[in-house]
Amino acid sequence: MEKEFWLERWERAETGFHQDETNPYLRKHWSELGLPLGSVVFVPLCGKSMDMVWLRQQGHPVLGVELSPIALRDFFKENGQTPLELSSGKFDCLEADGIRLLCGDFFDLSRRELSSISAVYDRASMVALPPEMRERYVRHLVSVLPPATQILLVAFDYPQNQMSGPPFAVSASEVEALYRDHAEIRLLAQHDVLAENPRFQQRGISRLQENTFSLL
């Protein structure tokens, strides 16, 4: 998607993709990564996700990146924090209580910004990108991450011809194709979640799965 698409979604408050609660698969499977306390977690295309608050509560400093300054300001405001505002290379930066959020383009990230990262949590990145951008996303991500960085990936899968994204369908076979040259892939869980998502039913979706992967 073009940058303007997401910036306009935040400006118009069209953020139905935002979850007000922590993702249940993050809660259930995060411990399987076996990260020590203090390990820094990167959240790409983070929006104002409450998952970042949960990760911080588990003892992890968090680094996020997001295009929209509205999303980042809302995150700190809604969590009762006044962030320190800094500049970091191509990014404006807001930081408070161990959560550092970069405002700018994911594809402008370099190894310098991610040098301290031990893990990535991706619930909103892969599914936000159309197929033609996902290969570029993965290629850039693995090029700027430190070696042996673990990834917890949560993705939707549904018949793509029944709905235009975002969120887009990302199948297990596509995850395998995109990451097999870079990581060992484990499918941790697969859940049928159509009944829990009436807005997808209203759009004519006949099948909706949420798949959780660990990548190392």
**Class inferred from helices and paired strands:** alpha/beta
Instruction: Quote the beta fraction.
Output: 25-35%
Q: How many individual helices? A: 7
Number of strands: 9
Q: What is the subunit organization of this protein?
A: single chain
CATH superfamily of the largest domain: Vaccinia Virus protein VP39
3D shape? globular
Structure description:
The protein has 216 residues and is α/β, with parallel strands linked by helices. The model has no long low-confidence stretch (mean pLDDT 93). The protein has a nine-stranded mixed β-sheet with strand order 3-4-5-2-1-6-7-9-8, with helices on both faces. It folds into two domains: 1-11 and 38-123, Rossmann fold; 125-216, Vaccinia Virus protein VP39 (Rossmann fold), CATH 3.40.50.150. It has helices at residues 3-11, 24-29, 51-57, 69-78, 131-144, 172-179, 198-202, and strands at residues 40-44, 62-66, 84-88, 91-96, 99-103, 117-122, 150-157, 185-192, 209-215.
Topology:
Blueprint: H1 3-11, H2 24-29, E1 40-44, H3 51-57, E2 62-66, H4 69-78, E3 84-88, E4 91-96, E5 99-103, E6 117-122, H5 131-144, E7 150-157, H6 172-179, E8 185-192, H7 198-202, E9 209-215
Parallel strand pairs: 1-2, 1-6, 2-5, 6-7
Antiparallel strand pairs: 3-4, 4-5, 7-9, 8-9
